[in-house]
Structure formats: C-alpha cells, structure tokens
Write a structure and sequence with these properties.
WH-like_DNA-bd_sf; D-Maltodextrin-Binding Protein, domain 2; 10 helices; Arc Repressor Mutant, subunit A; two-stranded antiparallel sheet; DNA-binding; transcription; elongated; single chain
Length: 296
Amino acid sequence: MTLNQILYFNMIVKTGNMRQAAEQLYIAQPSLSASIACLEKELGVKLFHRRHQRLHLTPEGEAFLEHAEIILHEIESARNHMEQMSEKRETMLRIGSISTPFCNYFPDIFCQFLALPENKNVQFTLDSENTLRLVYGLEKGIYDIILCSKTNDPTLKQYPIISNQLIFLCPRDKYSKPETWEALAAMNLIGYEKKSTMDGILEDIALSKNVHFNFVYRAPNEESIVALVEHGLGPALLPRNSYINHQLSVEYPLPYNTVIQRQIYLTIKKDFLYYGATGRFIDFLLQKAKEDSPDK
C-alpha cells in the first residue's frame, strides 16, 4: 500500500467517478483503475461497487475510508507542523550558555547580529546552565546551540570563541596575593559544584601543581561564586568576568603569575544541517571569533 493509493482512493470517494477522479489527480484513467485494483488485491476486499453510473463504497470500503481519513489527517498535520518549524527556524534562536558570556558578550553580539537586515525579525531565548546540562539540552533538542566548556562528546563539534584568564579573587582587605601554589592550597576556597566542568578543570590544575585545593563552599556558576566572595565568605579561583565588583573584591594573578585560560566553545551537533536564523548565527559567531583572534 502506498500513499498515492490512499490519495487516489480518497479522490474517488469524493467524486464518485473514476474519470473525474483521474482528471482531479492529473493521471490517466487506466492508471488510476489499475492502482485501485492493486490496492483491492493487496487488501483482499472490494472497495467500490458501481450503481447508477457512480462508484459507491462497499462495507469494506467504508471501513477502509475511516483509516484513510486518519492517515491523510496525520499527513496534513505533519505538513503543517513542519511548515511552522521551518518558519520558526528562520526567526527563532534557542541558546543555552554557561553564565560567563551573559553580561558583556551576548548583548554586544546580539546587537551586531540583529543590526543586519536579514536578521531584523529574529527572536531569541537564553538559558543559563552548567556544561553537563547544556550538552544534555542540545542533544535533546532543547537548544539549537550552546556555549560551554570543553566536552569530549564525539557527537558534537566545538569551536573556541571566548577566552577568559583564571584569577584569584578575594574579599577586599582580607587576603593578599598567594605567591605559591602551596599557599593557595592552604586556603579555604569557594569552588564550583562537584563534578561540574570547571570543578574538573581546577582539580586538573591542582594535580599538575602537586597540591590539593580545599573547597569549603561550592556554587553553580561565576555569578554566585563572585557574590559569595564579595560577602566575605572566602577567596575563589575563577575566570575573569563582568560580575566582579572591584569595590567589594580584588583580583590577583595566579601564583608565579601563571597564565591559564578558560576557553568557552560554540558547541553544535556534528553532521547536523543548520539553516535559517541558527545557521546564520553560527556563521556570525565563527566569523567574529576569527576577526577577534590574536592569530588572525
């Protein structure tokens, strides 16, 4: 059974005439008759009988019509749904991101992107999560793209677009710059929630310096960590960001003036066709990253 056979059957029901149905379908009448004969043979029943020069449904044909109408309704519903999705893809962006880009990066990027004539009707939603939840949301279709830390998921492609230097941040007038990694490890620190990507990055740094960081408080993102530091709960290691109020806190370089960068990656699905607003935004971000790269 094919979709065409169901469409042919439905048109014959509407017209009650094989010739008129063939004209409506723009096919030859013998081809239409042969297709319906094949359908009846496959189903093992007669669908029509002729009475007074018109084709009428048999009881079996009446039963088949109920199924045919359901199938055609679902096809029309699917077509409408896909058209709506196509329209939304042209104008809607669903973006997930770690918190760092929210204050400075996104406002500037969106102003530039929306200033382009082809993007004047684009709308967007922004959601803040940690990297693990963002990757899950991308894979489940909750987000079109995400900005997150490095992930080893083989189904994703990542492009570095933002670089933030790690710093030592502490409440003003309470701490001095840690001169050694051992001195830093001796402090009670505010860290990221366990098993988050940034927690793993800091643990790797500690391992490479042969120390162990003592995290006595933990928070989900830079914004909340900065707030805890500025309320005097302790120092933290985190990427430099725009949440920092330098009247309440002070930042120092890492011990021995070590420079460590945290990369933020534009992350998309591998082997997935992006088009519409999402495709244009991906191209825009990659071009901006290329223009801003010190190696250009």
